[in-house]
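Weekly sync, protein design subgroup
Attendees: M.S., D.O., the rotation student, P.L. (late)

Item 1: inverse folding check
M.S. brought a backbone from last month's batch and wanted to see whether the design step gives back something sensible before we order anything. D.O. pointed out we never logged the input encoding, so this time it goes straight into the notes. Structure tokens as presented (184 positions):
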């Protein structure tokens, strides 16, 4: 009997969100402790719940390579396939729902940038900061958050609007990017 087994490997990602290895079990030889792009430490587990960061989906397929009719024995071989052409670095842990360090860092940077803007009043700054989570992940409140974001950032300093775009564009979904920044 031939068997297929599907499982997720674990991933190694640095503190700033650079993908190091999406197949840490399959390719343990490429698992450095520090990122070669930014020098930050790399992680394989969620820092909140300690579960592995989900990596690439693999399927092991067993197949018959030859068959001996005299002994009625089959020679089998197991092949391994990565089922994802493109691996998307996760924003949140799929086990506990907490943001990964690279998301926390970007949200903190966005918050600090908003707080620095001298053209926004306190209520506008608070509104922008409170709506950041609904801007990076599609939720029932995303349309409202995007509307508020556009309205308030149009009043903000140019450097704030451009800075927020640079911080958030890497972590927003494609649909949200298209709405916020239709002309890249």
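Designed sequence read out in the meeting:
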């Amino acid at each position: 009997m031939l068997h297929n087994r599907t499982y997720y490997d674990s991933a190694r990602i640095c503190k700033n969100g650079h993908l190091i290895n999406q197949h840490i079990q399959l390719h343990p030889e490429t698992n450095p402790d520090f990122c070669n792009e930014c020098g930050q430490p790399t992680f394989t587990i969620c820092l909140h719940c300690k579960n592995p960061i989900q990596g690439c989906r693999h399927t092991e397929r067993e197949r018959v390579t030859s068959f001996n009719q005299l002994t009625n024995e089959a020679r089998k071989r197991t092949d391994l396939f990565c089922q994802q052409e493109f691996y998307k670095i996760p924003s949140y842990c799929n086990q506990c729902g907490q943001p990964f360090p690279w998301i926390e860092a970007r949200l903190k940077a966005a918050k600090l940038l908003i707080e620095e803007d001298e053209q926004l009043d306190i209520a506008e700054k608070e509104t922008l900061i409170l709506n950041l989570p609904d801007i990076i992940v599609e939720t029932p409140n995303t349309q409202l958050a995007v509307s508020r974001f556009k309205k308030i950032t149009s009043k903000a300093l140019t450097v704030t609007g451009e800075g927020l775009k640079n911080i958030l564009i890497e972590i927003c979904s494609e649909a949200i990017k298209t709405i916020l920044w239709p002309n890249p």
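Discussion: Strands lie at 4-10, 12-14, 19-21, 42-43, 54-68, 73-82. The radius of gyration is 22 Å.
Action: P.L. to compare against the previous round before Friday.
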